[in-house]
Amino acid sequence: MNDRLLELFEGVAVHATADREHAAALELLALVMAADRRLEQAELDTIREISDDWRDTDFTFDKYVGPAIVRAQDAITKDEVIELLDEIDRRISSRVLRRALFSAARDVAGVNDDVSPEEGSILAEVAVRFS
């Protein structure tokens, strides 16, 4: 799966130049990861690989992933997932990145081969907005 992700996102870094777009993309992937209320290392590793492929060393993954996870968990706890997705949607303008996000979200959800109903619901929203 990781080879598939690397192949999928090859060249996306050119289009995901703004920190705000990258941060929004990380929030989206963190939302999928946190949907089942478990944070699994394999999911986090997959998000890190995607992030590393998107950007160079100027974008520090560790600086942005923590806040992205907190935002995602907060949206889930407060039942504000749609509002967070709306806000993420407004921040991502790159068409290439937008189209790549659904595949990335689906791959993050499928890391453990078990897509929960919560993850499925978020994936459906992501599919409508980003594919």
Care to describe what's here?
The structure is a single chain. The protein has one domain (2-130). It contains seven helices and no strands. It has helices at residues 2-9, 19-34, 41-54, 61-77, 81-91, 95-109, 117-130. The longest helix is centred in the middle third of the chain and has 17 residues, at 61-77. The radius of gyration is 13 Å and the shape is globular. It starts with a helix and ends with a helix.
Record field, number of beta strands: 0
Largest sheet: none
- Beta-sheet strand percentage? under 5%
Q: What Rg is obtained from the alpha carbons, in whole angstroms? A: 13 Å
Query: Given the C-alpha coordinates, what overall shape results?
Result: globular
Kindly state the percentage of residues in helix.
over 70%
Structural class by helix and strand composition = mainly alpha
How many structurally independent domains? 1
How do the SSEs run, as a string of H and E? HHHHHHH
What is the first-to-last residue Cα distance?
20 Å
Give the rounded overall mean pLDDT: 80
Please tally the helical runs, counting DSSP H or I stretches of 4 or more residues. Answer: 7
